[in-house]
Every structure is written in structure tokens, then in C-alpha cells.
Write a structure and sequence with these properties.
The protein is of the alpha+beta class. Strands 1-2-3 form a 3-stranded antiparallel β-sheet. The chain is globular, with a radius of gyration of 14 Å. Helix content is 45%, strand content 18%. A hairpin with a 4-residue loop joins strand 1 and strand 2.
């Protein structure tokens, strides 16, 4: 397995950061598909427009865990606007690459963060779609990367 993955992927898989739940989360996003085996749940706590805390729970392969872990590190302490700029490409680059058949994991991480931010806005009575955009379903993500 290690021959196909960078040291950063292996490190984030074997030593994931920010694992768990946030009890007082004000945004929770879940994306995934039990059929494909990857399910990500992101928890955020936003204070004054800044992501003060972020945690994740991921059921899936090593790439799914690694992308979740590094994505949380990449948005911690960022404004909501900055977090919304996180792309799956940036996640892949931060991990020094992923095998092509695992790129969908980085898209799941990006979409889980966007889903948590959308939930944050919904809890405030704000329509998130004009801000966050339309979220992709797990099926759409998988279809794009098969």
C-alpha cells in the first residue's frame, strides 16, 4: 500500500488529526455513500466568522481518512470565505498526490466541508446555496471519477 501513497498520505492515515465530534458544533456536514464505502462527517464551530474548531469522523479507506485529516488542518483558523475556497486539488497537492482512482476522496473532503458550512448558514436562517453553491451528491462525485 505504501508504495502507492506519499509519506504525507501515510502520516495522515496512520496519525489523523482532528478526529472526533464537536459537541457544540454550529455546522455539521455529511457526505458519502455506503455503497462506495466512504462516508465523511465534518463538524465545525464558527466564532466571529472564523472556524475556531473542526473535527471529522470518516468511515472509509486510507485516502478518505488522510484527505479528511489534512482538510481539517487546512481550514482551521480560516474565515468561512477562506474555507470555501479549499478545493480538492489543493487537498491532493497538500498530500503530495493521490492515485487517480482515489481522487474522489479529496472531492468528498471538499464537499463535506462545504456541507458543514451550508448547515452553519441554514441554522442561522440563511439560504446557503448562493454562498456555498450547490453541493454534489456522493453519487455525482463517484460518477465523475470512475
Amino acid at each position: 500500500m505504501a508504495a502507492f501513497y506519499s509519506e504525507k498520505v501515510m502520516d495522515h492515515f496512520t496519525n489523523p488529526r482532528n478526529v472526533g465530534e464537536i459537541e457544540n458544533a454550529n455546522g455539521i456536514g455529511e457526505i458519502g455513500n455506503a455503497k462506495c464505502g466512504d462516508i465523511m462527517k465534518m463538524y465545525i464551530r464558527v466564532e466571529n466568522g472564523v472556524i475556531a474548531d473542526v473535527k471529522f469522523k470518516t468511515f472509509g479507506c486510507g485516502s478518505a481518512i488522510a484527505t479528511s485529516s489534512i482538510a481539517t488542518e487546512m481550514i482551521m483558523g480560516k474565515t468561512i470565505e477562506e474555507a470555501l475556497q479549499l478545493s480538492n486539488k489543493a487537498v491532493v497537492e497538500a498530500l503530495d498526490g493521490l492515485p487517480s482512482h482515489k481522487i474522489h476522496c479529496s472531492v468528498l473532503a471538499e464537499q463535506a466541508i462545504k456541507a458543514a458550512i451550508a448547515d452553519y448558514y441554514q441554522r442561522q436562517g440563511i439560504d446557503p446555496e448562493p454562498i456555498v453553491g450547490k453541493l454534489q451528491s456522493a453519487e455525482e462525485i463517484e460518477a465523475c471519477h470512475l
